[in-house]
Amino acid sequence: MANVDTILLVTSFNRDFNVRRIERYLTLTWESGANPIVVVNKADLCDEHETWRAELASVCQGVPVLVTSALFGHGMSDLEEQVRIGGTTVLLGSSGVGKSTILDALVGEVRQEVLPVRSRDDRGRHSTTARHLHCLPHGGVLIDTPGLRELELWNAEGGLNHAFQDIGALAAQCRFRDCSHGNEPGCAVTRAITHGELSLERFDSYRRLQREDAYVRSRQDERVRADQTRKAKEAARALRLQDKLRKR
């Protein structure tokens, strides 16, 4: 995202909470060049804040993880400070995590319609359908966005390396430079998984995002090759036409 300084990656203490999704969000945020902050909203729905927060912090590689309840004001002063010093900030997250409520709390007045989540599955409903830019009373600019249904990687190798620095550091210790982290001897990654220093779920998430990024890049390469082939054929046709005209 051009001209964005900070991205608030918002999840909540309900069914939306998903560590693997946050890893994806972090990858894309780092790739964009912005600084991420993870916000876990709706603290009023959970009595085990620190357990959930610790689970997120274990994969966030030092990224701040803030616990809030925008509806009741819990943790909003810390978030307000982060937004004020952050220049231009964007709210990203699924529908129903409370992005609009966070916005209203930071602005100090109701700016966005807020809809309750569906009781049968904790799913949110789209109360925000377009991007809106808001100037905050204590400084900074906040952009609210519609709820995300799906977020696909796009040439995110740099973001992956940043979001999974721990795995990169382990891979650098493998005996073989081209280690696939499978059955090779001297693999530092598999050793860390065996000893409980790296969770298998996090490693699987990393490999899955790697495969997705490689697939997207291959599709992009295919389109580039197809475009180059089309241009070459057009040039050849133009040359044949010129030859015919000269012969006349």
Give the gist of this structure.
The chain is of the alpha/beta class. The chain folds into 2 domains: 6-144, 3-Layer(aba) Sandwich (Rossmann fold), CATH 3.40.50; 157-244, Probable gtpase engc, domain 3 (Ribonucleotide Reductase Protein R1, domain 1, Orthogonal Bundle), CATH 1.10.40.
The share of residues in helices is: 40-55%
Report Rg: 23 Å
The structural domain count equals 2
First-to-last CA distance:
55 Å
What is the overall shape? flat
Count of helical segments?
A: 8
Please name the CATH topology of the largest domain: Rossmann fold
Strand order of the largest sheet: 3-2-1-4-6-5
Structural class: alpha/beta
Which sequence of SSEs, written as H and E, runs from N to C?
EHEHEHEHEEHHHH
Instruction: Name the CATH class of the largest domain.
Output: Alpha Beta
Strand-residue proportion: 5-15%
Low-confidence stretches: none
